[in-house]
Amino acid sequence: MVHHIVMWKFKPEVEDAKKPELKKAMAENLKSLVGKVPGLLTVDFVEAPLASSTHDMALVTTLEKAEDVAVYAKHPEHVKVADTYVRPYTTERAALDYEE
Question: Start and end of every Stress-response A/B barrel domain (predicted)?
Answer without folding.
Answer: 2-98
